[in-house]
Amino acid sequence: MRALVLLGIVGFLAQLVDGSLGMAYGVTSTTLLLAIGTNPAAASATVHLSEIGTTLASGVSHWRFGNVDWKVVRRIALPGAVGAFAGATFLSWLSTEAAEPVMAGILLALGVYILVRFTLWGTPRGNLGKPLRKRFLAPLGLVAGFVDSTGGGGWGPVGTPALLASGRIEPRKVVGSIDTSEFVIALAASLGFLIGLGSENIDFAWVGVLLLGGLVAAPIAAWLVRHVPPRVLGSLVGGVIVLTNVRTILRSDWVAAPELAQNLAYLFIALVWAAAVAFSVRAHLAQRRLDAERPAAGSREAGGSDESEPVPS
């Protein structure tokens, strides 16, 4: 019972982050399931089955708040579904011993990317309003879908930063469009896992609890996306993913690092993580001050110009 309650809390927090940041539900939930010894393919299958409900609820919530660009959803969802089905089939074929460090490595890479991407660069806004073309969205969806299934998460970590980096649509619409299209990816991945694994290898009680937590968080996250700074949230989430998956890799049979080396690695990561979060907070506050000063400076310039010029007779 305690494990189910904890999973419900994880589902709530993971969806809260995912709906606000456009990523990390699958990565966060799968990381936890791996940490407690779940079969990698079963962990990814559990998460994707729960995502069918959470992404549907999240998509509806984002739609109601006006956070969805339907052209982007249409162009990225189908290639993403193809990649997700292929990735699920591939992961189901791997043995548990081979899959665990492989999945942890993928999750670690995604965690590092999230941490570095949001800490150093924030969310770019150039080229706003320019169209996103199919020749960009289709390959992006295919790769993101494959990574999502094999890594237990990755649709958001691959798709969201790529769309943000383009600077062509508003950050809130990037988050809403990625979350909405993920419903199709979750369906395709779940189908691939059910074919590859069979339903007997999936704990549907865990699926239900993760789903329940995510459903509660979905509307809150759709509202928070307008208020929570993505830069800070990205740094926080990236650090959690990096720390947890480094732990999995160091304890795996592939590495089997001694306890002292593990503890030193955890300490180093914790220090880097704390510095990254502090940097993101300072950068966010500096940007807020800059944004606040711009209109004030414009008003002063306009006022000074009016006073300095002679009034025509």
From TrEMBL:
Membrane topology (UniProt): Multi-pass membrane protein
Parts of the chain that traverse the membrane: 76-94, 101-120, 140-164, 176-198, 204-225, 232-250, 265-285
Region annotated Disordered, chain positions: 292-313
Top-level taxon of the source organism: Bacteria
The keyword Transport belongs to this UniProt entry's keyword annotation: no
Pfam family, one: TauE
UniProt main location, coarse: membrane
Protein name, per record: Probable membrane transporter protein
Organism listed in the record: Allonocardiopsis opalescens
